[in-house]
Design brief:
Structural class of chain B: alpha/beta
Strand content of chain A: 15-25%
Mean pLDDT of chain B: 95
CATH class of chain B: Alpha Beta
CATH topology of the largest domain in chain A: Rossmann fold
Largest sheet of chain A: 5 strands, mixed
Radius of gyration of chain B: 19 Å
CATH class of the largest domain in chain A: Alpha Beta
Number of domains of chain A: 2
CATH superfamily of chain B: Thiamin diphosphate (ThDP)-binding fold, Pyr/PP domains
CATH topology of chain B: Rossmann fold
Oligomer: heterodimer
Order of helices and strands of chain A: EHEHEHEHHEHEHEEEEHEEHEHEHH
Distance between the termini of chain A: 48 Å
CATH architecture of chain B: 3-Layer(aba) Sandwich
Mean pLDDT of chain A: 97
Number of helices of chain A: 12
Low-confidence stretches of chain B: none
Order of helices and strands of chain B: HHEHHEHEHEEHEHHH
Number of domains of chain B: 1
Radius of gyration of chain A: 19 Å
Structural class of chain A: alpha/beta
Number of strands of chain A: 14
Low-confidence stretches of chain A: none
Number of helices of chain B: 10
Chain lengths: 324, 325
Amino acid sequence: MPQWNIIQAVNDALRIEMKRDPRVVLLGEDIGKFGGVFRATAGLYEEFGETRVIDTPLAEGGIIGAAIGMAMYGLKPVPEIQFSDFIFPAFDQIVNELGKLRYRSGGQYSAPLVIRTPVGGGIKGGHYHSQSPEALFIHAGGLQVVCPSNPVDAKGLLLSAIRGEDPVLFLEPKRVYRAAKGEVPEGDYTIPIGEAKVVREGKGMTVLAYGAMLHEAEAACAESPDLDAELIDLRTLWPLDLETVTRSVQKTGRCAIVHEAPRSCGFGAEIAALVQERCFYHLEAPILRIAGWDTPFPYTLENDYLPLAPRIRKGLGELRGRRP
Amino acid sequence: MDRATRLALYRSLVEIRVLEKRAYDLFLQNLVKGTSHLSLGQEAVAAGFAVAMRKDDYTFCTYRGHAHTLARGAPMVGVLGELMGRKCGLMGGKGGSMHLTSVEHGAMGSYAIVGAHLPVAAGAAWSAQVRGTDQVSVCFFGDGTTNIGAFHEALNLAAVWKLPVIFVCENNQYMEYTPIREVTAVANPAADRACAYGLEKILIDGNDADVVHRTARECIGKARDGGGPSLVEALTYRTSGHSRADPGKYRPVGELDDWLKKDPVVLYRVRLVGMGIEENALRDIERAVERAVDEATEAAKACPPSGVEVIEKDVWADGGSSWRN
């Protein structure tokens, strides 16, 4: 099995599905001849031609709007938004059109498309190349939101996403785009949307993470084996695998949630609410959120802003000592 | 154009050129951690307009904004310090290369969402109109911006309300890595759209500082006199990549060399010498600029990096971030 990074895994998934399904088309800024700013679509223009790998103008609203139309009428578009921070010119199309199509047409229409976009900090990109907007899209409704942490999951989840019948926002963590490597099975395989993965078993506390911060949480748990933490990679953020989360928290009695996005109204807030609804009498301490700050994303202070392993370890240490 | 204006233009061109090269060097030395988008080859647009602007006029620019910010008079140490994430940076290191802002110098910010600042520039012009201050707003953007909705919304607003705003498209031929002509319905992405908003088609040589300056004076004068907005397309070329990591391999062989023959700084120097301006005067400017950039570099390097204590500053009007963190 090849040792691949997330970019290579995404590229492979796109190639496999484009070969398998002639309805799959890619569109986005610089994705064709140039191969994408992160090289995720490298070689696909040459292999599949300009009718299936489309270089678009800088116009996110137009990209997503056109992709919705394609998806309503028989194609399987996979638009790329160059950075998730650039998604906001398309926010209206995604929230008001894409997420509501099936519902508002009484099930007559849907637009099964997959929006791929790099997410999060890690490249010193400053305010507009670092954000984590997942909670906004979960809140909007009608969208599945996926965020893999490693190449094996990235490939399997992307293939599931493209084959699915609902729109998916596929968030690719750019901090670990190249850093997270793994033995990616060759050929076709899928990982179902909506299934979390226990990456480390433990009885002392449950740690929930996803994307780039999964690796930070993993490091923190490994550095403090006495915490006996159970680490869960959510993988799919929405629909959330609440069963796996609930089972774990009922076992451990403590729960921490790690994400890059600002803490207030972040996805961790929703998870905390869901966990206390289901595990209230099992909880031995208040649920802890370890997150980005409630500020815009700062350029030079990136490593202070992100909840990296040292901050996670400190938080988990406090969580262990907390009493209800 | 008088001698003083010409020398001011030349100085501005040289300042941008030397500072941009220094910024690149600092990246290579790993003293700048993030990315950068240089204006090498495009200096004449920033210089030509800035020299024509009044001190209290507004500049809005993009993430390729070192040139515009500097041309309005922002201090070099603040610019370099910001790139390097130092306390002396224009925004204390929290913004970096893509967001240079110096309100004191009329540099109202560098925007990294394509098209986002065009309606904002229109709003600033609207405010000037309402307040009756005769200020004008000059908004720079790239060719790629002409295909996003905000471009069209802002132009229509500005035309309908006859706002004192000049929209300046720096057509450097590439949006990022894709040639603009491959994804645009018209040959001149900005100028050919002017008629849609009842505006004159203005297509100029953006590498000729005199042409840019003359155009700037005309448009700014018109806007100040209540004549409404202008849309200018300045043809130019970025002789470096889109960003730090871009070697520009998508360019056809020979294209860069052709444009290097039209280097705006070299062209302008040759013209000034041809007009009888003494070599010594030009060399004095070049030496003074080199010295200033060297001093700013050393000052920025000597300045401590921004610390975590500023992370929650300036979220709210009280200067802090109130209830948490």
